[in-house]
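Model it.
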Amino acid sequence: MWYCGLPGSVPLCSDAPLIKVPLLFPLPPREQPIYTTRAHVFQIDPTTKKNWVPASKQAVTVSYFYDSTRNSYRIISVDGSKVIINSTITPNMTFTKTSQKFGQWADSRANTVFGLGFASEQQLAKFSEKFQEVKEAAKLARDKSQDKGETLSNHSQEESGRDTPSSNRASSINGTDDEKFLHVDPEEAVLQTENEHLKSAIEQSNTSAKKWETELQTLRENNARLVDALQESSANVESWKKQLGACKEESDTLREKIAELEAQCNEANQEKQRNVQLSVRVQELEAELHDKEQELENLRKQAEIIPQLMAECESITTKLQTAESRNKELEGRVDGLQLDIDDSQQKQVNMKGELKKFMDMLDGKIDELHEFRQGLSKLGVDN
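Modeled.
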């Protein structure tokens, strides 16, 4: 499984060891959330300082909190009962976008780098803008606290320098309180007012210092508990590393078995293809066998007709012999008729010759008769 928002497509390993730190202290009532979103949380691998280790199996709530008393900002994310992000924002921090849906920042106090994978680019852009706003606000708060510290130190120095003359003046005045009040200079009244303000400020600073000392002691105790939890988690990490090595060996063995099974599956697929080809060939042979059986059946039917055909063939043979004998006789007759025809043709030729001779003779006779008629006609004319 891969998370598309990480640069380089870092794999999400659900079996990666995580340091489970219980929520040892609740959020103070003075802290209020100012922005909340959801994202996948990652931390840099402390060993390699390159790979990302998922701190949550799914998207969790990530919130910006503002402490009005300390005037500080924190990014906090809790997965169930486990705090996975507790990062106080300082002006030196920088939020870097490493891809379209992934960003990171380094926390020197926690000695780690946090990474957030968002579901969309808009969520990443909004978180980055809020980080920049909170960073600027933290910078302004730091500058104000520095200015306030300088002012308090200057006022304390002025107060130490002014306490002596004011006390001398007060000790030199005798009489009732009303008389003292009437004899007080305006400058001294201003100094007394400033002293009262400085005293109240010092009292407030002392009260704040006590609170800070109490909170510092609480943080030290929490840090001690966190150190114990970290040592315990380091011991757990060693055992988890051993278990991881055993799991890797088992996975290598399983991969080899899977490779063998895949090879067997390939052989089985080849056998299936061969069986399919053989089935197709068997079907073709069955079709051919059916055609041959049909042809054989037709031949058997034809074989039943063969005796009738043989009898017909014999009768036809007899008729053919008879026709051949008749044909020979007719050929003999034809030869005789041909001879007769030749004779008749010869006779016709002879008759034509004789007829021609007769016609020639007739023509001669006709010519003689014509000449005789002409002679007769001349004789008649003469007569």
